[in-house]
């Protein structure tokens, strides 16, 4: 019996603890009687759980230390010798604090704890509008990390008015990385979140996406088109709002720019706008857009390119939805 105990190997981490629990549960389902847990095993389990809890507490302490850095007052208008260098060091320290928080908040429990500690309120009130672009985009990135897949955090952020600030940054910040990270945060707040969508609509979010697809920043164009496509897929009731803005004309115009990976999402959005929606179909068929010839030429260019298969599929689907039925109708009219 003592040899069995010596040969027994205990898990060394949380995943091992969980697997041990699963194995114990599976054994309990069998017909053999369950043996009482030995004192040795009880001691090990208590120690393992204590270590897990200690690790979580350590992470909370790390977050508190990062927030202490971010709460520090900043000097202004100081001209003493060496002050510029100290200000650069201070900015580096704040950026490092944000990076640590973003890493820690990949854990959903930590994201919720950061909200409780007031970290998200600090991001919104001080750092989204900070003069340093490196701190603005890191604040937006942290907001996105915490909001992703966390309804409780999403609701809190919406209640403290973060969405209009993020949309403004997406629309007009002079630094391209800030705009991209702000849109990422917007996406985390509005996808699969009804309250977020309503706030997005009330602040003319679709217009922000339309303008985002017209900039030179490739990442911003791609993310704008992708979010538009995603929202139309999830909320087809918004087609009327989008089409009435002249979105079809803007999307076709975007397809005429030099070929880019973001065209795949543009074509996907156009497919959404014509499917089961007559006004969108009518706009796409407008001869002044020249969409039929554009799609024919694009399909020809994409043939045989494996990396562009999804774009080609959207292209051919849009041609089918818009023009195959129209061509058959025209042919029938000629026959008569």
UniProtKB/TrEMBL annotation:
Annotated gene: hspbp1
Listed transmembrane segments: none
Record Pfam families: Fes1
Bias type Acidic residues, positions: 84-94
Superkingdom of the source species: Eukaryota
InterPro entries: ARM-like, ARM-type_fold, Hsp70_NEF-Inhibitors, Nucleotide_exch_fac_Fes1
Cellular component GO terms, alphabetical: endoplasmic reticulum
Biased composition (Basic and acidic residues): 71-83
Nucleotide exchange factor Fes1 domain sequence ranges: 14-114
Protein name: Hsp70-binding protein 1
Keywords from the named record: Phosphoprotein, Repeat
MF terms in GO: adenyl-nucleotide exchange factor activity
Subunit structure comment from the entry: Interacts with the ATP-binding domain of HSPA1A. Detected in a ternary complex containing STUB1, HSPA1A and HSPBP1. Interacts with PGLYRP1; this interaction blocks the cytotoxic activity of the PGLYRP1-HSPA1A complex.
UniProt KW Phosphoprotein keyword: yes
Residue numbers spanned by region Disordered: 22-41, 71-95
């Amino acid at each position: 019996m003592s040899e069995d105990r010596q040969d027994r190997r205990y898990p060394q981490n949380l995943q091992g603890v969980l697997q041990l629990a699963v194995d114990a549960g599976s054994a309990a389902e069998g017909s053999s009687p369950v043996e009482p847990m030995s004192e040795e095993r009880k001691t090990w389990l208590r120690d393992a759980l204590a270590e897990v809890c200690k690790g979580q507490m350590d992470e909370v302490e790390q977050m508190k230390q990062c927030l202490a850095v971010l709460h520090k007052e900043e000097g202004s208008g100081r001209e003493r010798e060496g002050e510029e260098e100290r200000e650069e060091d201070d900015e580096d320290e704040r950026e490092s604090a944000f990076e640590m928080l973003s890493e820690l908040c990949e854990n959903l429990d930590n994201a919720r704890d950061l909200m409780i500690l007031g970290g998200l309120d600090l991001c919104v009130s001080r750092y989204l509008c900070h003069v340093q672009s490196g701190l603005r985009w890191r604040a937006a990135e942290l907001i996105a990390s915490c909001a992703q897949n966390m309804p409780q955090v999403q609701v809190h952020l919406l209640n403290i008015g973060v969405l209009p600030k993020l949309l403004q940054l997406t629309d007009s910040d002079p630094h391209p990385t800030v705009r991209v990270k702000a849109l990422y945060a917007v996406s985390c707040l509005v996808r699969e979140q009804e309250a977020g969508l309503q706030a997005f609509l009330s602040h003319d979010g679709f217009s922000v996406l339309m303008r985002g697809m017209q900039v030179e920043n490739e990442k911003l164009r791609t993310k704008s088109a992708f979010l538009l496509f995603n929202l139309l897929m999830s909320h087809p009731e918004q087609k009327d709002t989008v089409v009435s803005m002249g979105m079809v004309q803007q999307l076709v115009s975007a397809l005429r720019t030099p070929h880019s990976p973001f065209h795949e999402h543009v074509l996907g959005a156009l497919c959404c706008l014509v499917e089961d929606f007559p006004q969108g179909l009518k706009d796409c068929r407008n001869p002044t857009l020249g969409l039929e010839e554009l799609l024919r030429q694009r399909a020809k260019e994409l043939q045989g390119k494996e990396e562009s298969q999804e774009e080609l599929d959207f292209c051919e689907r849009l041609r089918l939805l818009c023009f195959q039925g129209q061509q058959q109708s025209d042919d029938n009219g000629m026959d008569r």
